[in-house]
Amino acid sequence: MQVFERAEELSAFIKKQKDQNLKVGFVPTMGALHEGHLSLVKHSLSENDITIVSIFVNPTQFNNADDLARYPRVPEADLKLLESIATDVVFLPSEKEIYPHGAQSASIDLNGLDHYMEGRFRPGHFQGVVTVVKRLFEIVKPTRAYFGEKDYQQLLIIRYMTRLYNIDTEIISHRIERGPTGLALSSRNELMPDADKDRARDIYAILNWSRDHFREYSPASLQSAVKDRFENTPLELEYALVCNPQTLAPVEEWDENTGARLFIAAYMGKVRLIDNVSLF
Ligand code: PAF
């Protein structure tokens, strides 16, 4: 496994691979890797000749300084995990390497995809995400890049950004990976004591209940029913929204042609968790 810290050196290395017609898969991460990340990396390894994983805790996507400071950073453990599954290349850049002119977000019109959910509750978050992903794509120029459906809104926004800038990278989505209780795998889970991780299983239980019962409700009354269910859990619900899976606009009535997805953000103690499910 080769580790690069300099963007220029990585770009030169990748150019050589692409000159030989090799397909380059890319998995951008912020580290604190878990099985969810590893399954993205394995997905890339299975479809490409060479797989690059970046580890960079991107300051511009945090709208809360505490959240950035508390974000887990364990580069040595991450490298071991990546080596154990035969990752080809890891990119571990410094902030200066990614933001040579200072860490600042671009201001990109995201066609309304950032008006809801995470975009609303974490102002500036997606501008930071697209800024860093665009920069990483410029360095890596991947054939394919892999993103998990837990961050479904991020996935759609990155897909939109690649179309907007004519970036020649195929965006591949990957199913949500879950632990034994159904809790979606996330680096933030490591900020919770085991007892809280166990109590957070209610999120998955409520998503499953919603998928099984949504036809008994209108979208708005399903959202209220979900809120009521959260009242009987140790979690504090931030939002429960039924959205169009393509535009993310709130769904007002069920429509067989567009489908619907339920999105949840909830706090378990101080840890903010997100999850979602396709209703149909
Ligand atoms: O999903 C993440 O871990 C981050 O938002 C990403 C895509 C690596 C950009 O920093």
Share of helical residues: 25-40%
The N- and C-terminal alpha carbons lie at a distance of 41 Å
Strand content: 15-25%
Q: What number is the mean pLDDT?
A: 97
CATH topology of the largest domain: Rossmann fold
Structural class comes to alpha/beta
Please report the total strand number as a whole number.
Answer: 9
The CATH class name of the largest domain reads Alpha Beta
Question: What is the molecular shape?
Answer: globular
The count of helical stretches stands at 11
Gross CATH architecture of the largest domain: 3-Layer(aba) Sandwich
Describe it.
By secondary structure, this protein is of the alpha/beta class. It has 2 domains: 2-174, 3-Layer(aba) Sandwich (Rossmann fold), CATH 3.40.50.620; 187-278, 2-Layer Sandwich (Pantoate--beta-alanine Ligase, Chain: A,domain 2), CATH 3.30.1300. The protein is built from 11 helices and 9 strands. The chain has helices at residues 7-19, 35-47, 65-70, 75-84, 95-98, 117-121, 125-140, 152-164, 194-199, 202-213, 219-231, and strands at residues 2-4, 24-29, 50-55, 89-91, 144-148, 170-174, 236-243, 261-268, 271-278. It has a 6-stranded parallel beta sheet with strand order 1-4-3-2-5-6, with helices on both faces. Helix 2 links the parallel strand 2 and strand 3. The model has no long low-confidence stretch (mean pLDDT 97). Residues 28-30, 58, 61, 129, 132-133, 151, 154 line the site of pantoate.
Write the layout of secondary structure elements.
Elements (H helix, E strand, L loop, with lengths): L1 E3 L2 H13 L4 E6 L5 H13 L2 E6 L9 H6 L4 H10 L4 E3 L3 H4 L18 H5 L3 H16 L3 E5 L3 H13 L5 E5 L19 H6 L2 H12 L5 H13 L4 E8 L17 E8 L2 E8 L2
Parallel strand pairs: 1-4, 2-3, 2-5, 3-4, 5-6
Antiparallel strand pairs: 7-8, 8-9
Bound molecules: pantoate.
The site of pantoate has 10 residues, from β2 and α7.
